[in-house]
Each structure stands twice: as structure tokens, then as C-alpha cells.
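Input (structure):
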């Protein structure tokens, strides 16, 4: 409770305005939503500039590491299954995403 109050005071002082706890919580939820959307976009387009950074930005936050790591693991398992099922046909988009996810997992685990 003390930490929440301190965050509220710091945000109020930095912004120059007084905001309610509900507004502060809503702002934090919106920020998290934007970060999750950025990770989703990175997974859809792994070659985009800043894709790896979007994943690591959220994954390096201790509160969300397990969520991001799990998300990447499940996506990797699904993509590996697709690649194994379609061995005769090349799937360049899936292969690129597998490589990107493996790189993202290494980045999260090593840092």
C-alpha cells in the first residue's frame, strides 16, 4: 500500500496534475496493453525493425517475464509442429518466426 501511494505521489508530482488512483491504474493497464500489442506485432512480423526490442522490453520486466516466456514457448511449439507437419513444403514465414522466437528466448534468458 505504501509503494502504491509513493508511485501515485511521484506520478502526480511529475505530471504536475493530481490524478486519481483509478486513472493511474487505467494508465498502467493501457501501457501494458500497448506493450502486449507490440509483442504480438513482433511475432507477426519478426523482421520488422525493433521487433526483438519490443519482446525484450516487456520480457525483462520481472512482473511479466513468465508470461512472455510462456507465450514465446507455446508459439515456438506450435510453429515447430507446423514445420514438422509440412516438411515437404517450405514455410519461410514460419521458419523466420521460429528463428526469431529462439533468438528472443535466448535474449530473455541471458539478460
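Output (sequence):
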Amino acid at each position: 500500500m505504501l509503494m502504491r501511494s509513493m508511485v501515485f505521489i511521484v506520478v502526480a508530482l511529475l505530471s504536475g496534475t493530481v490524478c486519481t488512483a483509478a486513472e493511474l491504474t487505467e494508465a498502467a493497464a493501457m501501457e501494458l496493453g500497448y506493450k502486449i500489442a507490440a509483442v504480438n506485432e513482433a511475432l507477426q512480423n519478426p523482421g520488422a525493425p525493433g521487433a526483438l526490442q519490443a519482446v525484450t522490453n516487456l520480457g525483462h520486466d520481472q512482473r511479466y517475464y513468465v508470461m512472455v516466456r510462456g507465450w514465446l514457448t507455446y508459439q515456438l511449439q506450435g510453429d515447430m509442429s507446423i514445420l514438422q507437419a509440412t516438411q515437404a513444403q517450405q514455410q519461410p514465414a514460419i521458419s523466420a518466426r521460429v528463428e526469431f522466437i529462439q533468438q528472443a528466448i535466448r535474449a530473455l534468458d541471458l539478460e
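Notes: Residues 8 and 21 are 7 Å apart (CA to CA). Confidence is low (pLDDT under 50) at residues 1-15.
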